[in-house]
């Protein structure tokens, strides 16, 4: 099968590999579309992320059609349209024509959307839903979200608004991104441009000059310090990036904050596969009922090295403009 492969020199190249064999409780999926994530290029540059490489073929989420299954795989039929976040649980990554995964991480695709839309969901959907489910927010809670127009931020805001949680303040870096949030239903005063001076003052002003109960930080680094500063004593800091600075940690410790780490990876480590399937089925239901819409997506190209390099460059330079980047297969 055709694939984009990481060679021994740690360079990506076009290649051909054997189609993976199917074991007992696994399914073979012909990939129709796959999504790109920052971790894809970070694995090539960052020692910590590099440890997560389990195959010379990268890529972590897909939609497609089941074309074969193991003798003990009973939940799907050949021809079923599915989507999943394969993470490092597949035979290979998703920059390929086919992948074998445990059927226990796979969900039926939402019926009312395309393969491309479905491929844009797993990573951001699983992360957003985990944040939402673990926080157990109620409408009176005050929430700050940094990096709000990224994949996770956009999806999470849709989830919050659909459940009538509206006391949200969100940070953006451009007028175009402000417009995205206005279109989603936030009001102008809830959206703060992080490039402005007096950022902390502006964020607090948006919350009636009160500190926040919850800070969901999707940016890290300097924004982890900003988030820590505007949290109330004993507030909750939600860490999605693992990029919290030493200064932010100190502020959070002094405030007695609860730090909630968000990780989808952990469920694969302990083979708690039902987490993936159940979360994706929950999202499927929300999308089919029209409660939320899939992420805005942008098709970069077909399965090729050129497409992969272009997508990595867009992500690295923060030029996705609120769109999930997709590769057609």
Keyphrases for this structure?
329 residues, alpha/beta, six-stranded parallel sheet, 15 strands
Describe this structure in words.
This protein has helices at 38-45, 47-50, 115-119, 122-135, 151-162, 175-184, 199-206, 222-230, 246-254, 265-269, 274-288, 305-316; strands at 2-6, 12-16, 26-35, 61-69, 81-85, 98-102, 107-108, 143-146, 168-172, 191-193, 212-217, 231-239, 258-261, 297-302, 324-328. By secondary structure, the protein is an alpha/beta fold. The chain is globular and about 60 Å long. 34% of the residues lie in helices and 25% in strands. Strand 8, helix 5 and strand 9 (168-172) form a beta-alpha-beta unit. The relative contact order is 0.16. The mean pLDDT is 95. The strands form three sheets. Strands 3, 4, 5, 6, 7, 14 and 15 form a seven-stranded mixed sheet that branches. It has a six-stranded parallel sheet with strand order 10-9-8-11-12-13, with helices on both faces. It is built from twelve helices and 15 strands.
